[in-house]
Amino acid sequence: MNFTELKLKDKLLDAISYMGFETPTPIQEIVIPIILENKDLIACAQTGTGKTGAFVLPILNKLIGKKDSGIDTLIIVPTRELAIQIEQQIQGFSYFVPAESAAVYGGGNGNDWESELQAFKNGADIIIATPGRLLSHLNLGNVKFKNLKHLILDEADRMLDMGFIDDIQKIISYLPKQHQTLMFSATMPKSIRLLAQKILHNPEEISLSMSTPADGIDQKAYLIFDEQKEKVLIHILAEHKHYDSIIIFTSTKSKISEIVRSLNRNGLPAHGISSNLDQAKREEVLRNFKSKKIRILVATDVMSRGIDVKEINLVINYDVPHDAEDYVHRVGRTARVNAKGEAITLVTQKEMYKLKNIERLIKASIPKIQLPDHFGEVPSWEEQHIKSLKKRKFSNNKRFSRANSKEKS
Question: What is the pLDDT of residues 86-141, one digit of tens each?
């Protein structure tokens, strides 16, 4: 299938061609017709599948020839980075389409607030906003949605994880009752389904490759002692000197600076990015990473859904993520849109159960790689697996024994 078969207008097809896209991704083939038919939608698709284009393209198609004024579409996202990323894609796709868009997010300066006010006043066609910042404007009466026709919730599962459920419901109370609602989520937990039942009307439901990494990702894991992490990380980077785009994910902001200092000491220039940096600095770091001026970037899980960089060669999980779904988002930064990529996870003894949870979620065993002999002794995967089974059996027996004691008493 090509984009012409999706019945998009010529101006938009010209913009798509200008940006170098030739054929739609599977999610775009399915979703674009549904949105053009004005149906509500709940869609589950992993990162890197062309999800943003799936909702941006039909919205822009509808905006061609728009006659009424005011905000037509509201896109709610969990992070500033994602708001900026979507706004940039809209700017590219709307190259030949007269559509105005604005990103609304916190963490900036007074000038950002003023530019947001101006966008509301002038009636930008598309607003991409984080929940907290948008609520601040709504509470002050700065924005009106009387002509709104489309509400899009992107990364809905992440917004619920971050505690935005009440904010989202309050924002929806400001919107006209009649509008099309589109919900996109990389995972589909019960909380997402409950929210969908509240805000969607007879939605179409699609699910593509739910909670599984892309096929093009070469996944590996090293079982190591905690004190070996730094040396193993440097070893991995030395083995991948030819890679020009690498992300290292850690579970806490405090570890970012430690990892960056360690790499710099060993002659490996690296930069960290987290919410501790002001917005201007974060944007600068991301720009330099996208342009390959920064080769190694260290980040947290919050950033795993906000980084949209093509041709990332390698993702390294310095820590195994606590939530199995976060593993999917981390490694989803590589192998974007049918490309190839590599993901390596460092696993300590106390993190083994997290890796098992990941393998259950993705329904696949991640290959375990043996370190070279010069690293000395490392934990035995087989021994640790047996210990884990014995511990689980002992725990189950203990619970069974307590239950019997209660029954007898």
Answer: 998 898 888 888 899 999 998 766 778 999 999 999 889 999 999 999 999 999 99
Query: The domain 217-378 belongs to what CATH superfamily?
Result: P-loop containing nucleotide triphosphate hydrolases (3.40.50.300)
Domain boundaries, the chain: 3-208, 217-378, 382-409
| Cα distance between residue 322 and residue 301, in whole Å | 10
Q: Would 3-208 and 217-378 be classified into the same CATH topology?
A: yes
pLDDT in tens, 262-297: 999 999 999 998 767 776 788 888 889 988 999 999
Q: How many CB atoms lie within 10 A of CB 344?
A: 23
Q: How many helices (H) and strands (E) are present in the chain, helices listed first?
A: 16, 14
The band of 212, judged by pLDDT with boundaries at 50, 70 and 90, is low
Write the class of the CATH domain 3-208.
alpha beta
